[in-house]
Design a protein that fits this description.
The complex is a heterodimer of chains A (324) and B (473). With 324 residues, chain A is mainly alpha-helical. Chain A has 14 helices and 2 strands, in the order H-H-E-E-H-H-H-H-H-H-H-H-H-H-H-H. The two termini of chain A are 23 Å apart. Chain B is an alpha/beta fold and 473 residues long. The chains are: A mainly alpha (324), B alpha/beta (473).
């Protein structure tokens, strides 16, 4: 007979446990001065992080917002131009295309990343023996710790139309050489492929953690109710995994919206503007055209888009995410 | 002592220890703060002359013998060379601009044609006063250097750099591939039609795992040499007035004296010129017929290896390739070099590089002494002991430099200037980075599809160039 506390009763149990230890036992009793000194201690520990974040994150963000209203080429003194930078950015066809590319990239890459990570996580968690599970966890996570620039240089060789290994393998199957990096479709496919290959390991680990936290009893109950393997995943795994899916999707979308390394190294944004992304345009405006104000304006717009998408995700999560 | 007191003391001491640890972390951060400042940057915080070059620490070390020689001559000037790794010149300039933005600019920067006008326009100090002052010392240098290289560093009548090395887009060819196709060494005045016929013959002789013409999508050696050969360019080229002080001082008797000006200007786009269309259409034909590759943007890093492995028939490159091919195992007779094919003209493209003094340099006189020394034959021989580039001094491009490495017709390198005095630099206005992007992003599309796609790509290039030239102008 199972001694597990039914899940719905767990909060009550926890509340009882808190009440049980709360009344002033010697181990947890605290004087006002004790709490005061602990607060100071907390601030001391937090200080380096707060200082670091303030200096290297918040101040640059604020400076970037201010800079968006100036014309500045590093060399001359900045000139206040009001909203001119924003107006120019909105009218610039390259900027518009790069944002559309970025959004298309996010939709495809994030869908592939999450889909692949979830499928592999389920397979590894359910079908593999423990020792293989450990191996695959490391193997799938490994690309993430590599430098994106190095990986992209390496991939550039692999996908070379004339001498790349990928086309060589395809030729063994009688498939003619594919112009991977020199046609809009091919280059977009390679950028997405390389990005997903390198990043899905993080989502995979999140899903592995999420799957491990789903109680076996729920699956047992579903089996008793007659659910088969596929239906169990649809009606048990996916709903109970929804908080993890939310976290994974928020992080994947934020990361994909900032994609730079792979398209920059693999294709330099080409052919045409087919793989040019928002962050690439920020880099080109600032460090190649010396238009730091315009680059900051694009950065501000991108930040607002990221914030809006993240807020929308959390809002939607109230309807679609099932917290146990 | 009661148990309660003992517990309180133990608690207090733990807190004290934790507090001390926290304070220690803060203290360590504060104490290490100076290490994170710009004083770590070579040349900053002391009076050293800080020199930035593109390359690795090995490249910086290779200059040590020249630095030692300079220090013997000027013991009062300390020199620090900072090598900055970059994929290409555009990337290198980006890093220099980052240093400028950070308030830690170097005093002297080794700048190639790609960035010459950007530096001249915004960052560099002209050399005119120094050249006038030391004209007697510098006469020997200019006697040994072709005026086309010098003119590439003229900007609005002032000279901003002395050329140290340079490279033209010549045509390298694999002698084995030529032999297999029954081809002889091309004549000096071979045409674009001859070139295409040679590619077709090589393709016929080696139908697979071989590319008759490999080219890259870059400013140097990409589409530009073909445009020059067809007597056009993607930007309208004009010359500014001025500069007579220099030409009359150092090149008064040069046969090409009358061609010289106050510097090149690229003020308007020219991608809508019918000759530009014709040139791209020719390249599109090569791609379509499997004679040339569809060029990757900025590619080229793997080119030496591919050429050395006999999988490429021809490719445009300069004298900088010789050492790389030698190290990759090519014997001196395995390859050779020819002039770029003739079309409407046989104007060639080149790029050159030299030191620029930054406006912000602490000691410009010391910077000039370094430049003057670097331009001497002694320094150049120390800096360029191997054919990793073409030295700007004609006298150094000699049999000894290429002995045992090839190519057999190494004279082609400097003859590109001497026999063709109209040979010109890469089009690189102050907005070079944006201009290069506007060119590169449309090249692949232009040569990859049908005639309609080519037309659209050139229209797009014209628009992008207009926008690029308007910026920061």
């Amino acid at each position: 007979m199972s001694t597990t506390i039914p899940r719905r009763d767990r909060p009550k149990q926890a509340a009882k446990a808190v009440k049980a230890v709360k009344p002033g036992t010697p181990a947890t009793s605290q004087t006002a001065s004790g709490r005061h000194s602990q607060r100071w201690l907390a601030w001391i520990f937090l200080a380096p992080t707060i200082l670091g974040m303030g200096l290297f994150t918040l101040v640059p963000i604020a400076a970037s917002v201010v800079l968006a209203f100036f014309r500045w080429d590093i060399i001359s003194a900045p000139t206040f131009v009001g909203f001119d930078n924003f107006a120019e950015v909105v009218q610039d066809p390259t900027v518009r295309v790069s944002f559309l590319n970025t959004i298309a990239f996010v939709i495809v890459a994030v869908a592939l990343q999450l889909g692949l990570a979830l499928a592999l996580a389920v397979m590894v968690q359910e079908k593999m023996p423990a020792w293989l599970r450990t191996f695959f966890r490391s193997a799938f996570f490994f690309p993430l710790i590599l430098s994106a620039a190095s990986v992209s240089i390496f991939m550039r060789y692999l996908f070379n139309e004339q001498f790349g290994v990928v086309n060589w393998f395809l030729s063994l199957a009688g498939i003619p050489a594919v112009p991977w990096l020199t046609t809009p479709g091919g280059s977009a496919a390679v950028v997405i492929l390389v990005y997903v290959w390198q990043n899905f390991g993080f989502s995979f680990l999140l899903f592995i953690g999420g799957l491990a936290s789903i109680p076996m009893e729920t699956y047992e109950a579903a089996s008793l109710d007659g659910a088969t393997g596929w239906r169990k995943h649809v009606y048990v795994t996916l709903p109970l995994l929804s908080p993890t899916t939310l976290l994974a999707s928020v992080m994947a979308i934020i990361s994909a919206l900032q994609v730079f390394d792979q398209p920059y190294v693999l294709t330099r944004g080409g052919p045409g503007d087919s793989t040019r992304t928002a962050v690439m345009v920020i880099f080109e405006s600032a460090f190649q055209r010396l238009e730091f104000g315009e680059a900051s304006a694009i950065g501000v717009i991108l930040t607002l888009i990221i914030m809006a998408i993240t807020a929308a995700q959390f809002r939607l999560s109230k309807r679609f995410v099932f917290y146990q | 002592m009661t148990g309660a007191t003992t517990g309180r003391l133990r608690e207090l001491s733990r807190r004290t220890a934790l507090g001390a640890l926290g304070a220690g972390i803060v203290g360590a951060t504060v104490a290490s703060w100076p290490r994170l400042s710009g004083s770590d940057i070579p040349g900053r915080g002391d009076n050293s002359l800080s020199i930035a070059i593109m390359g690795t620490s090995a490249d910086a070390a290779a200059r040590q013998r020249a630095i030692d020689a300079f220090t013997r001559l000027h013991p009062d000037i300390r020199v620090k060379v900072q090598a900055i790794q970059a994929v290409d010149w555009k990337d290198f300039f980006t890093k220099i601009l980052t240093m400028v933005a950070a308030g830690t600019p170097p005093d002297v920067v080794y700048v190639a044609t790609e960035g010459a006008q950007l530096f001249a326009d915004k960052l560099a100090h002209p050399l005119d006063e120094y050249l006038r002052r030391d004209a007697a010392d510098m006469a020997e240098f200019f006697d040994d250097v072709h005026p086309s290289l010098v003119e590439a560093f003229m900007y609005k009548g002032s000279l901003f750099q002395l050329p140290m090395d340079w490279n033209a887009a010549n045509m390298y060819y694999n002698t084995t591939a030529f032999g297999q196709a029954g081809l002889e060494r091309p004549a000096d005045d071979w045409t674009n039609v001859d070139f295409r016929n040679n590619l077709a013959a090589m393709r016929k002789a080696r139908p697979s795992d071989f590319t008759p013409y490999y080219w890259t999508n870059r400013l140097f050696g990409g589409v530009v040499p073909w445009l020059y050969a067809n007597d056009t360019s993607f930007l309208k080229e004009t010359r500014s007035a001025g500069g007579d002080w220099l030409w009359d001082s150092f090149y008064a008797n040069d046969p090409s004296r009358n061609l010289r000006s106050g510097g090149y200007q690229w003020l308007e786009p020219n991608a809508d010129d019918p000759r530009v269309f014709e040139t791209f259409d020719y390249l599109r034909g090569l791609v379509k017929d499997g004679l040339g590759v569809r060029p990757e943007e900025g590619g080229g890093s793997s080119l030496v290896g591919l050429f050395a492995s006999n999988r490429i028939g021809t490719t445009p490159a300069g004298g900088y390739w010789v050492q790389g091919l030698h190290e990759a195992g090519m014997k001196e007779n395995d390859y050779d070099v020819a002039f770029f094919p003739k079309w409407r003209s046989q104007r060639h493209q080149f790029g050159t590089a030299g030191y620029a003094i930054m406006k912000t340099a602490k000691d410009k006189d010391a910077a000039w002494e370094w430049i003057k020394f670097s331009a001497s034959r002694e320094a150049m021989e120390l800096i360029f002991p191997n054919p990793v580039t073409t030295p700007a001094r004609r006298s150094m491009v000699n049999e000894a430099l290429y002995a045992g490495k090839g190519p057999a017709h190494w004279k082609v390198f400097y003859d590109t200037l001497d026999k063709y005095p109209t040979t010109g630099p890469i089009p690189a206005p102050p907005q070079q980075a944006a201009v290069e992007t506007a060119l590169m992003k449309n090249v692949s599309l232009a040569v990859s599809g049908d005639e309609r796609q080519l037309k659209q790509a050139l229209e797009s290039m014209q628009r992008d160039l207009e926008l690029a030239l308007r910026r920061q102008s």
